[in-house]
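Sequence, please.
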C-alpha cells in the first residue's frame, strides 16, 4: 500500500480503489504534535467514530466501507473507506460557549459572523446550535469563516448541505449523549463529495479529539468545565512555559494516564 497522506494523528494509505485510514496514538495541541503518545488513543478514536457513524447513518452517508477488512497489524485502529473529493472547510457546530468560540464572542459578540445574545459566559448553553465553519489550513492555524465565505468557496448548494448536515449531526449526537449524562459542547466535522456529488461524512465523528464533552452532572456555566476530551491536554500544556511552536513538550506519565482515563470513560458512557 502507498502512503498518500500523513496528518497530525492519522495516516492514509491507498489500497486499490479504497483508502485505509489509520489512527495513531499521537496527540496534537495548538497544531503541534507532542512527542509522547497516549497508548490506546487511536483505538478509542476509531471505535467511537464507527459507533457514531452507525448511529448517524440515516442523517448523512459516511465514508466507511469496512472496519475489519484492514491489515491485521492495524486491527481496531483502522478503517477501509471511500475515496472522496474532500470539501476544504472545517464544519464546526457549537451548542455551548467555549474555546475559540468564547474568545470570539468576548471580542465581537459573534462567532463566524453569527450574532449571539449579550450576557453569555464561559460554558453557557447557546439559544440554538450554530454553524461556525473554519478554513482547513494545510499549514498553520484554521481561521474562522462566515457562511457567505463558505458559499463563495463551495457554492450555495454545497454550503447549505454542509450547514444542514453539520447541525443535524450535532443535534442528533447531542440528544443521544444527553441521555447518557454527557454534554457535547461543540464538534468539528469533515465532509467529502462522492463522484455523484453526494455529501459524505468522513474522517472522524464526535470523538474526544474533535469535540468537547462535559458531564451533565458537573456543568456549571461561568468558568472552565471538566472535560472528557483533548482539552485536558491543552489545559496542561497552557500552564507550561511553551511558545506553542515545535518541538512540543513531553507529556508526563500522570497526564498520559489521566488522558487515557478520560477517553475510556467517555467511550464507556456513550456506547454502553
Amino acid at each position: 500500500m502507498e502512503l498518500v497522506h500523513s496528518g497530525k494523528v492519522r495516516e492514509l494509505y491507498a489500497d486499490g480503489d479504497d483508502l485505509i485510514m489509520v489512527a495513531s496514538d499521537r496527540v496534537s495541541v495548538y497544531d503541534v504534535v507532542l512527542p509522547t503518545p497516549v497508548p490506546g488513543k487511536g483505538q478509542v478514536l476509531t471505535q467511537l467514530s464507527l459507533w457514531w457513524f452507525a448511529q448517524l447513518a440515516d442523517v448523512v452517508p459516511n465514508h466507511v466501507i469496512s472496519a475489519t477488512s484492514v491489515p491485521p497489524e492495524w486491527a481496531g485502529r483502522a478503517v477501509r473507506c471511500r475515496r472522496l473529493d474532500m470539501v476544504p472547510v472545517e464544519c464546526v457546530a457549537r451548542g455551548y460557549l467555549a474555546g475559540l468560540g468564547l474568545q470570539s464572542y468576548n471580542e465581537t459578540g459573534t462567532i463566524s459572523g453569527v450574532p449571539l445574545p449579550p450576557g453569555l459566559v464561559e460554558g453557557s448553553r447557546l439559544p440554538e446550535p450554530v454553524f461556525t465553519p473554519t478554513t482547513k489550513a494545510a499549514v498553520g492555524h484554521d481561521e474562522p469563516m462566515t457562511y457567505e465565505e463558505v458559499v463563495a468557496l463551495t457554492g450555495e448548494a454545497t454550503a447549505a448541505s454542509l450547514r444542514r448536515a453539520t447541525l443535524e449531526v450535532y443535534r442528533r449526537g447531542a440528544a443521544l449523549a444527553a441521555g447518557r449524562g454527557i454534554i457535547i459542547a461543540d464538534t468539528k466535522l469533515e465532509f467529502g463529495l462522492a463522484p455523484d456529488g453526494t455529501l459524505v461524512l468522513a474522517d472522524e465523528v464526535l470523538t474526544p479529539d474533535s469535540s468537547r464533552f462535559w458531564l451533565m452532572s458537573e456543568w456549571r456555566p461561568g468558568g472552565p468545565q471538566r472535560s472528557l476530551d483533548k482539552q485536558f491536554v491543552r489545559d496542561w500544556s497552557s500552564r507550561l512555559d511553551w511558545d506553542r511552536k515545535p518541538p512540543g513538550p513531553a507529556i508526563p506519565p500522570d497526564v498520559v494516564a489521566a488522558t487515557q482515563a478520560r477517553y475510556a470513560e467517555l467511550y464507556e458512557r456513550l456506547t454502553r
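The longest strand covers residues 182-193.
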